[in-house]
TrEMBL record:
Its main location: membrane. It is found in: Cell membrane. The chain crosses the membrane at residues 172-198, 275-296. InterPro entries: AAA+_ATPase, ABC1_TM_dom, ABC1_TM_sf, ABC_transporter-like_ATP-bd, ABC_transporter-like_CS, P-loop_NTPase, Type_1_exporter. The keyword Transferase does not apply. This is ABC transporter ATP-binding protein. SUPFAM superfamilies: ABC transporter transmembrane region, P-loop containing nucleoside triphosphate hydrolases. It comes from Paracoccus rhizosphaerae. GO terms for molecular function: ATP binding. Residues 37-334 form the ABC transmembrane type-1 domain.
Length: 615
């Protein structure tokens, strides 16, 4: 069991009850009106059983009294004498109660369904909103992924908890109403019942805690299982799974993980079965003991037949209710333990945020961006991704970054957009630390298209509009961005043009080639009014001519704006005003293409290598 797994003991369970009030406040937030209606309906419903049983007792006592009094022999006689009128009134009352109970039950289910739905929507939106504010680093951290995964499950998985809590509330009121009835006859009856049920309560709590601990400890396994199931059967992976014959390997890996969980879970379930059977038997014994007492008192005339029915009825109901209450109380506490993950997730705060008094981004940028002796390590890694990095991105200039795989090119882009903050040194914009500026404005100013851009399963137009989602209805803007990125030719070939659904996730979707996707992605860059435009190798799948053309246009169209290009193709890179050569997270050299090829160094060497390939 990992150190952070809650131990399978009672205190963890009791402690989890602290989650109930915040959970209820979430319910209230989701819909105050429905919540109030629900509580009122449940309360009314809670008092029905005791009322019905009591009226039943009154009916029996009256029937017994009337038949003992030796009244008329015929029904008509009874009617005329008027003796039976109060009895008829009681029967009608009982009938009305039964009908009301039914209607209330249906209203409760109706309100419950609506409230649960509202709650799912509300929690989902809060999860999405909260996730949007968190650091990229959080998403790249596996333990955070586990937490997020568990929290996400809470959205659907813990919703029945609402019903459980409400039912619990209703049952408590019903129990209290019966207990008051029993107390009137003999307080010991109530004590006896409660005592007999305590062992089952602890038993239930113990086993629920064990199950939770197991689930918690195996969260990482489950994520892997979901992942395996996903890669075994999705459009994105089907090609490789077939070509490499991965199916048996995926299947075995899945089975190994699933079996481990199954075996551990079965052990808990087995113990629960035997222990709980014993504890429940205890309860049954106590129940029949009390029942004997009631029968004896009736025989000796201390209780009426009506009392006997009321008491035995109350007893039967109380036992069922208390048992249900105790077990659902413990399962409710168990469910509440799962809420820890949800609330944990909500308490996670981003480290990268706007300062309290942010500076506005200069319009226009005058000097540009500058890295001053910047060092950065990815969380959980010992080695530096960039170190001692000093470079300038002057306003209005087109700069290319080159370097071998892992040289730190993408990391520079992430630092520029403040997806991460440097561990050493600082990055400035017009002389002020990036951290002093408004974060949202900064991200709007830096338009980046990454090499691993997302292929959204939406329409072609929407795929482009992603670059400036507020302008998704601005068709002329979308069309002109598409033209600049050469994506218009791709779209012209689609049967439904800009409104064509793309991607293979949905039946209506039409998949595109790698290069075609890239053109759509590049069009996103033109949707923005970004002052710094970055293309981080989204052109890798374009053929050499298309990349050349895309970059040429990019340079022309970004005239007067600052632009950063990342590419491994020298034919494209040479268009830049200045080329920065990175090696091992540092600037190794910089200059124009002509300057760099003229002197011996990494650039000339790599350029020569690539040129040879074409000879
Ligand atoms: N999310 C991450 N978590 C941990 N380490 C990372 C992460 N992303 C990159 N790195 C590491 O940081 C270093 C720099 O990576 P970076 O992505 O900046 O290289 P790059 O120059 O863009 O490479 P490429 O040409 O392959 O795209 C590499 O050693 C890489 O392994």
């Amino acid at each position: 069991m990992p150190p952070d797994a809650p131990s399978a003991n009672f205190s963890a369970r009791w402690a989890a009850l602290k989650n109930i009030p915040p959970f209820l406040s979430m319910v209230w937030r989701a819909s105050p009106g429905l919540t109030m209606a629900m509580v009122a309906l449940r309360l009314a419903r809670a008092l029905m059983p005791v009322a019905m049983l009591w009226v039943g007792k009154l009916i029996i006592d009256r029937v017994v009294a009337l038949s003992a009094s030796g009244g008329p022999d015929t029904l008509a006689g009874w009617w005329d004498s008027g003796l039976a009128h109060p009895l008829i009134g009681l029967v009608l009352l009982e009938l009305a109660l039964a009908v009301a109970q039914d209607i209330l039950g249906r209203l409760v289910s109706y309100t419950d369904a609506l409230l649960q739905e509202k709650l799912v929507i509300d929690i989902s939106i809060r999860l999405m909103d909260h996730a949007a504010g968190l650091d990229l680093a959080s998403f790249e951290d596996a333990s955070f992924q586990d937490r997020l995964d568990r929290a996400r499950r809470q959205t659907m998985g813990r919703i029945p908890l609402l019903n459980q809590i409400m039912q619990q509330l209703q049952d408590v009121v019903t129990v209290l109403s019966f207990a008051v009835g029993l107390l009137v006859y003999n307080p010991w009856l109530v004590v006896l019942l409660a005592l007999a049920l305590i062992p089952s309560l602890f038993g239930e709590m113990h086993f629920n805690a064990r199950t939770y601990a197991l689930n918690h400890a195996r969260a990482a396994d489950r994520r892997e299982r979901d992942y395996l199931r996903m890669i075994a059967a999705t459009a994105e992976t089907a090609k490789e799974v077939k070509i490499f014959g991965l199916s048996p390997w995926l299947r075995d890996r899945y089975l190994t993980l699933a079996r481990r969980f199954y075996v551990e879970n079965r052990a808990i379930q087995r113990r629960q079965l035997s222990v709980m059977a014993l504890l429940t038997a205890l309860g049954t014994l106590a129940y029949y003991g009390a029942f004997l007492w009631i029968v004896a008192r009736t025989l000796t005339g201390q209780l009426s037949i009506g009392d006997l029915t009321f008491l035995s009825g109350s007893f039967l109901r109380l036992r069922g209710l208390l048992e249900g209450l105790l077990s659902s109380f413990s399962s409710m506490a168990g469910q509440a333990m799962f809420l820890d993950d949800l609330f944990d997730f909500f308490t996670a705060t981003p480290a990268i945020a706007s300062p309290t008094e942010p500076l506005p981004i200069p319009q226009p940028i005058v000097q540009g961006f500058r890295f001053e002796d910047v060092g950065f390590r990815y969380p959980g890694r010992e080695d530096w991704a960039v170190r001692g990095m000093t470079l300038d991105l002057r306003a209005g200039e087109t700069v290319a970054l080159v370097g071998e795989n892992g040289a730190g090119k993408t990391t520079i882009v992430k630092l520029l957009a403040r997806l991460y903050d440097p561990d050493e040194g600082r990055i400035t914009l017009d002389g002020r630390d990036l951290r002093d500026y408004d974060l949202d404005q900064l991200r709007a100013t830096v338009g980046v298209i990454f090499q691993d851009f997302v292929r959204y399963a939406v329409t072609a137009a929407e795929n482009i509009a992603i670059g400036r989602i507020e302008a998704r209805d601005d068709r002329p803007r979308i069309v002109s961005s598409a033209e600049r990125a050469l994506a218009d030719q791709v779209i012209a070939k689609l049967p439904q043009g800009y409104d064509q659904m793309v991607g293979k996730r949905f039946a209506r979707g039409l998949d595109l080639s790698g290069g075609e996707w890239q053109k759509l992605a590049i069009a996103r860059a033109y949707m923005r009014d970004a002052q710094l435009l970055v293309l981080d190798e989204p052109t890798a799948a374009l053929d050499a001519r298309a990349e050349f053309e895309v970059f040429q246009r990019f340079r022309d169209l970004t005239q007067g704006r600052t632009a950063l290009l990342i590419s491994h193709r020298f034919s494209s890179v040479r268009m830049a005003d200045r080329i920065i050569v990175l090696e091992g997270g540092r600037v190794q050299d910089q200059g124009s293409h002509e300057e760099l090829v003229a002197r011996p160094g990494r650039y000339a060497e790599l350029f020569e290598l690539q040129a040879q390939g074409y000879r």
